[in-house]
Amino acid sequence: MDTTPLITLSPPAGRALLTWNGKQPPPPLAVPSAIEVERCGVGDQLLIHGENLAALVWLLANGYRQQINLIYIDPPFGSGIDRARRVRLRGPGPARLIPVAEVEYRDTWDDDAYLQFMYERLLALRDLLADDGCIYLHCDFRKAHHLRCLMDEVFGAERMLNEIIWFYPRGGDGERQFNRKHDTILLYARGDRWTFNYDAVLIPYTRRQLARFRQEDERGRYYWNVNPRGERVKTYLRKPGIGAYDVWTIPIDAALARDLGYPTAKPLALLDRIIRASSRPGDLVLDCFAGSGTAAVAAQRLGRRWIACDVNAGAIQIASRRLRHAILEDAPSSVGFSVWRIGDAAPALRGDAHIRVTHHDNGVTITVEAYTNPLLANISQTLPDWRCIVDEILIDPAYDGVIFRPAIVDAPLRRTTQVRGVYTIARASLGASLAIKIVDAAGGEAFTIVSI
Ligand SMILES: C[S@@+](CC[C@H](N)C(=O)[O-])C[C@H]1O[C@@H](n2cnc3c(N)ncnc32)[C@H](O)[C@@H]1O
């Protein structure tokens, strides 16, 4: 059996350690099987569907040990809330939200299980992180104190760089205590060197601050010669702003989370700041609790490479849709990605599609006539059109039977827009068979292969 041992540390004497019932170093872990199932564009970026410890072990066994420059993780917070998706029906008119009966994301833990779960993953992440890499661990008041002890143990207390407070005003009210309106993001370095792009995250001076630098010297440099107390001091304007603080005010992007159908989606602006601050173009960014893929989307837009993983098939569907958009619309020439299924990852729920294929001299026309998902059976009679529940239709006109390479992508991002449902494919681009994938808003999908 092929196994990959994770390196555990013997903590130096005198260091406080957190313990829990059943605390143990992870045993050597079997390297799981992995298959590539889908490809978008050309490139070596990976969207992995599977349990993340298995995925991390697979990465360690496949050449990624100490190759990751930046890790961001946003694991379950131990909130005690098990989340089900809410499907927002597509189409014009007011938004209609339909709750889906099945729980998609469980976040109820006992403390011991949670800590052992995080401990094993943090050890694997440390082994993947480059010597000069950094890790951001996103959590909230429920687990921040425990996770900080774990991070100290795995990375070293002396490697802690920041405890970032992400403050998101608006919404909610605490009538029995203060309003809980921040998350904690712990930032650690792997070694004694790390990337920090001070200039990329500077807070620009306000007009008022800039107006104080009114004197210009003989070399064209501006300086300020009266301080706020009215005393004359000569201070040059050396930088275009002030160094960023460790308290960040960034609004929650509720519209984005609702449109994606992923309630825990973080704002792109948050991930944008993290990636700008702690990586360089071309660096490799890893998020193994990817959810809707915000970290990978931000990395893609900033010209970094990325690896993202999630155990939930619905998350992989949403993340790949966002990433495809980022690649095709923002920068069509940018690096592509492939989707891998690892270990015993459960495939998406099966939807049922009725498809008509019409052959004509110039090629074929594919018409989707109906689509249903058993999870939404209770509302299907009330829907004006099957398009209300379909998020995307993808077609690989020359399917090789192994890797799905969609060349036709009908995946409107806005909820007010529906898929077209009719597609004509020229004979020149057809292979011996074509494959059609339909993904719905409740996490189901239908995959149909047609021989030509
Ligand atoms: C808080 S959400 C992440 C949200 C993400 N940052 C975003 O912007 O959309 C946590 C994610 O971790 C995933 N997850 C939980 N346990 C996992 C595991 N063992 N392996 C892989 N993914 C896991 C869940 O499916 C969920 O999508």
How would you describe what is shown here?
- This protein is α/β, with parallel strands linked by helices.
- It folds into three domains: 3-196 and 243-342, Rossmann fold; 203-242, no CATH class; 349-451, Immunoglobulin-like (Sandwich), CATH 2.60.40.1930.
- The protein is built from nine helices and 27 strands.
- It has helices spanning 52-61, 111-128, 144-155, 207-211, 254-260, 268-278, 294-301, 313-330, 377-380, and strands at 3-4, 29-30, 34-40, 45-49, 68-73, 83-88, 97-105, 129-139, 160-167, 182-189, 203-204, 215-216, 222-224, 235-236, 241-242, 247-249, 284-287, 305-310, 337-342, 349-350, 352-360, 363-372, 390-396, 408-410, 422-426, 433-440, 444-451.
- The strands form seven sheets. The chain has a ten-stranded mixed sheet, sandwiched between helices. Strands 20-27-26-23-24 form a five-stranded mixed sheet, covered by helices on one side. It has a three-stranded antiparallel sheet with strand order 12-13-14, with no helix packed on it.
- Strand 12 and strand 13 (222-224) form a beta hairpin.
- Helix 1 packs parallel to helix 2 (111-128) and helix 7 runs parallel beside helix 8 (313-330).
- The longest helix is centred in the first third of the chain and has 18 residues, at 111-128.
- The structure holds S-adenosylmethionine.
Summarize the structure.
21% of the residues lie in helices and 32% in strands. It is globular.
Search tags:
452 residues; alpha/beta; Rossmann fold; Immunoglobulin-like; 3 domains; ten-stranded mixed beta sheet; five-stranded mixed beta sheet; 9 helices; 27 strands; 32% strand; globular; binds S-adenosylmethionine
